[in-house]
Specification:
Blueprint: E1 4-6, H1 19-28, E2 31-35, H2 42-52, E3 56-60, H3 72-84, E4 88-97, H4 105-122, E5 126-131, H5 134-144, E6 150-152, H6 159-167, E7 171-174, H7 184-192, E8 198-200, H8 222-232, H9 237-251
Parallel strand pairs: 1-2, 2-3, 3-4, 4-5, 5-6, 6-7, 7-8
The chain binds nickel (II) ion.
Residues 8, 10, 36, 93, 203 line the site of nickel (II) ion (NI).
Length: 256
């Protein structure tokens, strides 16, 4: 069986399926999961979750819609968690989101930059959320990120933007959107980018891949994402699993 690594799964947030069962399904299918945090309180939940679940790892970070809850204490909380839990292997999800509310863009940028600098200090990779904010996200990364590897989570940009990211050494993580009929941009990215920069994810419980659209997503469905990419590239799902797992282990050598 070929191993998969799902680089972004909120498995702790599943509602219709118990997270314990979702993790067990992944273990049975040789799928390792990385669980992101989204808020200043969620970091503790993710810390506990990965301590208590085999085959899971975590990121700590505050994502754009939750930046109003970010304080200096959040950074010291994150530092404590990282020092006490070797299964916390990155900072995320962090970034910019101009889709819902544009009234606090400056605060989003400030908190994004602080967390990039923190990741640099901790020497940990970044898992990045960018929605309708691609230009600013890349500009900030170019300017502030000194030494952290970076992943564009649930990549939603054009092929041109993917190439710009790759030029900066940034990895491209594709999820369920690549299986959607209207996911043309994601399909094109899946087809054209160098495989050494490709990663897999699900972003469950959101963005459920075909053929389960309309139902709750779960981390095991990363296989449908991989299968779609394999079909698009006219290759085998095992090849996609192998290369994306290798890529992920390069970013996160702590994963056993
Ligand atoms: Ni997410």
């Amino acid at each position: 069986m070929t191993r998969f690594i799902n680089t972004h799964s909120h498995v702790n947030m599943l509602k219709t399926l118990s997270p314990d069962i979702a993790v067990r399904n992944c273990i049975e299918n040789d799928i390792t999961i990385i669980v992101p945090s989204s808020s200043a309180t969620d970091i503790f939940e993710v810390d506990n979750f990965v301590k208590n679940h085999e085959n899971t790892y975590g990121y700590v970070g505050v994502f754009p819609e939750e930046v109003k809850g970010f304080t200096d204490k959040t950074l010291s909380d994150m530092e404590n968690i990282i020092k006490n839990n070797p299964k916390i292997i990155g900072i995320g999800e962090i970034g910019l989101d101009y889709y819902w509310d544009k009234t606090y863009i400056d605060l989003q940028k400030e908190v994004f930059i602080k967390q990039i600098e923190f990741a640099n200090e901790m020497n940990l990779p970044l898992n990045i959320h960018s929605r309708d904010a691609h230009f600013d996200t890349l500009e900030i990364l170019k300017k502030y990120n000194k030494n952290s590897k970076a992943i564009m989570h649930c990549f939603s940009g054009s092929l041109e933007f993917a190439k710009e990211c790759i030029k900066e050494g940034i990895y491209i993580a594709l999820g369920g959107v690549v299986t959607f009929k209207n996911g043309k941009k994601a399909k094109q990215v899946a087809k054209e980018i160098p495989l050494e920069y490709l990663l897999l994810e699900t972003d469950d419980p959101y963005l459920t891949p075909v053929p389960f659209r309309g139902k709750e997503n779960q981390p095991m469905y990363v296989k449908y994402v991989a299968q779609e990419i394999a079909d698009i590239r006219k290759t085998d799902i095992d090849d996609i699993a192998k290369i994306t797992t290798q890529n992920t282990l390069k970013i996160f050598p702590q994963i056993s």
